[in-house]
Amino acid sequence: MFSGELTDIDFQEKIGEMNADELQLFAVAVRDFLINSVAVTGGHLASNLGVVELTLALHKVFDVTKDRLIWDVGHQSYVHKILTDRAGDFKTLRSYGGISGFPKTAEHPTDVYNSGHSSSSISAAMGMAEARDKTGGDENVIAVIGDGALTGGLAFEGLQNVGTRKSKVLIILNDNQMSISKSKGSLSQHLSRLRSSQSYLLTKQKIKSNLKNLPGVGKPIYHGAEKVKKLMRNSIVSGSMFEELGLNYYGPVDGHSISTLISIFEAVKKIDGPVLLHVVTQKGKGYINAEQNPGKFHGIGSFDVETGAELGEKKATYSNVAGHIVTEIAENDRRIVAITAAMTDGVGLAGFAMKYPERFYDVGIAEGHAVTFAAGLAMGNMRPFVFVYSTFLQRAYDQIMLDVCAQNLPVVFMIDRAGVVGKDGETHHGIFDLSYLSHIPNLIIMSPSDGDELALMIRSSLAYGCPVAIRYPRGNADLSNLEKINSLMGETVGLQKFDYDNHVFEIGKSVRLLEGTDVEIRAVGSMVKTALETATFLSDSGISCSVVYDRFVKPIDEASLLEAANKNILVVTLEDNVISGGFGNEVSSFYARASLEPHLLTLGWPDEFIPHGDSEVLYLKYGLSSSAISVRIEEAFRKLNSGRERA
To answer: Which residue, of 147, 187, 383, 555, has the greatest Cβ tally within 10 A?
Structure first.
């Protein structure tokens, strides 16, 4: 039955025909397919291995073509995609034009909600349930949320409203004791107590009594309670916070037993009210390498199936450098603390956490709390570093503005994965941070051109005594880039190796890397390398370029910008951020305030959500590769000169 490729199977028909034992066997084939597929394409493996049986049972009991199945975060939806006619597309997973690693409504009708960030599924489910009730529908609404995502504040906002409204919603709590890193906090402890509760072995009569008295259930389920009793560890556990919030709580149950899950789904789908079903799973289930190291296999590139080792050369990343430098300077400054929101490994803080556990805080998926917590620490004369991905920091916008910046507190935001991040797509690209940060008073914003610059910025930030944001990209930090630039450009280059311990960057000061006469390219962060490559292309076309590295996005180097305007040449801004509200926008606004009208070309990402795909492909498609940029600049330069000649 399973000898052929999964791409040859009509799952909608086959799952309906399979019994629980056959589905349990089929789960092995699905896991094998997942492991071998993701080994080639990269992707989120451990989370998907953990929900194989859960997804199969959901598809067995519910009609996913009619019922509304919402995956919180969505990185665990691969099995759902396999079962909805997309197994054959997995060779294109997360590549440009291929299937996404997250649910997308435009990709398939059974993807009912675009996901990517955590904690939104319960609120979305409540909205869909209310819309169903208002329009006379009868579809089931199911939200699948992990215990890590449940730590997000939005999840609690949704829970307390679902409990109040009493709409028929099934919330499945996928409890694997993990987000990306191991779950932390009192909620995790509460779930642990539920998992180990003595009421696991409930009496037959108590189960029957609880089910019989539930609104909308009554005698039909009462008579089947003997079977249900064997499937549940506890039923409406005394002391469960979910019960107190007004939900019908069931669990914990074994999330890897398909027969158990099918029977329970059949029972709870008849309950006319909000139900929270607590399902216990193992992240990485069925693949020993992922079971032993679920954090590594949460999101992974191509890897060797036998050993689990990632393929390709490993170099120091910006995350590595950031974590290493903060750990290093913390040795001599006990005021320094590091905070992250469930991203210990991702942001490079594993070493800090091990060396200084008393000064390390993983607050769970709670970015807003992380920022305000940092503000409180800073008020107490500590020097907090908040490590967070760019795409997740936007969830804490209000706290950044009012709790930190309005009080001018010395909190340093370490903004990882700034710019386009590639295969995770629009929900994860960090191309908006300059736009939502640069207008906030008191905040200094820096963006390094390489790992050496990042190290120096971290050290400099401690001297400023105000809020600082340092945004840096995903990937290799190119620690030798400065030597390369110096050797290529000669002694006139402003960049050089500094004394890490004593050097502090002058606030707002840019660096001239290359002197030219026709065009001045002003680049931010990772785009400095691109600017230098572009200057070489343009030189071959007879166009002489200056290249200026704007270390500081805020404050901008106004003196240098005035000098550029006075040269009456083409000024080009280059950034890995959307143009709207970004660095180029700030430069344009400065010139307008100064009543100047220089020849200005702003280059960055357009005003749209950028899809998933290899970063190199995206840069090329959107005209932001060095070759494409050189063409755009040359066109603007030729047009400018042509206009001058006609004048």
So the answer is: 147
Give the number of other Cβ atoms within 10 Å of residue 555's Cβ.
15
Beta bridge partners of 389: 416
- Per-residue pLDDT tens digits for 361-411: 999 999 999 999 999 999 999 999 999 999 999 999 999 999 999 999 999
DSSP-derived secondary structure letter, 399: I
> CA of 70: how far to CAs of 115, 119, 129, 142, in Å?
8, 11, 12, 6
Using CA atoms, how far residue 350 sits from 195, 347, 355, 569, in Å, is: 28, 8, 9, 48
Tokens of residue 122, six digits:
């319960």
Q: Which of 395, 417, 471, 554 is catalytic?
A: 395
Joined together, the tokens standing for residue 403 give 């709790």
Q: Which domains does the chain have, with CATH numbers?
A: 10-292 (3.40.50.970), 318-471 (3.40.50.970), 506-646 (3.40.50.920)
Sign of CA dihedral 341, 342, 346, 352: positive
Q: Angle between the 527-540 and 481-489 helix axes, to the nearest 10 degrees?
A: 20
Selecting among 283, 285, 359, 459, the annotated active-site residue is 283
Quick check: is 367 catalytic?
A: yes
Q: At how many degrees (to 10) do helices 451-464 and 318-330 cross?
A: 40
**DSSP structure string for 317-370:** BHHHHHHHHHHHHHTS-TTEEEEESS-TTTTT-HHHHHH-GGGEEE--S-HHHH
pTM of the shown model: 0.88
Q: What is the DSSP string of 153-217?
A: HHHHHHHHHHHHH----EEEEEE-SBSSSB--SHHHHHHHHHHT-GGGS--HHHHHHHHHTSTTT
Helix (H, G, I), strand (E, B) or coil at 382: coil
Q: Is 165 a catalytic residue?
A: no
Determine which one of 53, 367, 453, 520 is catalytic. Answer: 367
pLDDT tens track for 555-602: 999 999 999 999 989 999 999 999 999 999 999 999 999 999 999 999
Does the active-site annotation cover 395? yes
Q: Both tokens of residue 434?
A: 């300059």
3 state DSSP class of 381? coil
Q: How many residues does the chain have?
A: 647
